[in-house]
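Query structure, 203 tokens:
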């Protein structure tokens, strides 16, 4: 198999891995509910926490991050030393992210991508991921609004990634793309924030 064919195969596998709807699966298997009918209707960690508590939310967050981490690590290992290895690895990361946002198993109606995006940054730009987590904790701790923390963490991840890798690296532009898509997926939250209607999480 050629390096390009392997790269394409890994991209497809990355999308399928990202499409695994852990929030929906655990909601049904453990909680006996469809999380899409609870709270915001989102399949991510925050809404799962509303349905089943903080521990379930954390578990979904970790699994949603892992479904990006694993494909990216596999791609990095299999493509090491080949032409365009970095580019294909970044494409696998983006495919996993798109899979979470538009999962084939759920009619292309997925989550907002924060945890999966974090998983990508953990592998491709770990210092940026650390900065993003700190920004999330500070913003969320101050406001008790999850979307504020998510948007703040995403912005820091993208900015730090670009600063560290520079405009010549596909990793930098992947960070910009992830941030733009996460902001787009939070457009309703942003509207509620502007109107002062976004709900705070209970302590």
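Result returned for the query:
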């Amino acid at each position: 198999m050629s390096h390009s064919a392997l790269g394409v195969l890994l991209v497809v596998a990355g999308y399928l891995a990202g499409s695994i709807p852990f929030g929906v699966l655990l909601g049904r298997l453990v909680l006996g509910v469809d999380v899409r009918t609870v709270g915001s209707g989102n399949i991510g960690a925050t809404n799962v926490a509303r349905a089943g508590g903080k521990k379930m939310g954390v578990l979904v967050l970790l699994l949603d991050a892992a479904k990006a981490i694993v494909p990216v690590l596999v791609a990095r290992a299999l493509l090491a030393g080949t032409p365009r290895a970095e580019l294909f690895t970044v494409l696998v990361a983006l495919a996993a992210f798109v899979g979470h946002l538009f999962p084939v198993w759920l009619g292309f109606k997925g989550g907002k991508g924060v945890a999966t995006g974090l998983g990508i940054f953990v592998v491709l730009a770990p210092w940026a991921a650390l900065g993003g987590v700190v920004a999330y904790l500070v913003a969320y701790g101050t406001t008790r609004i999850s979307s504020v923390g998510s948007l703040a963490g995403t912005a820091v991840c993208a900015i730090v990634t670009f600063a560290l890798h520079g405009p010549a690296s596909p990793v930098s532009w992947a960070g910009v793309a992830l941030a733009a898509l996460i902001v787009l997926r939070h457009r309703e939250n942003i509207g509620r924030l502007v109107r002062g209607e976004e709900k705070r999480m209970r302590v």
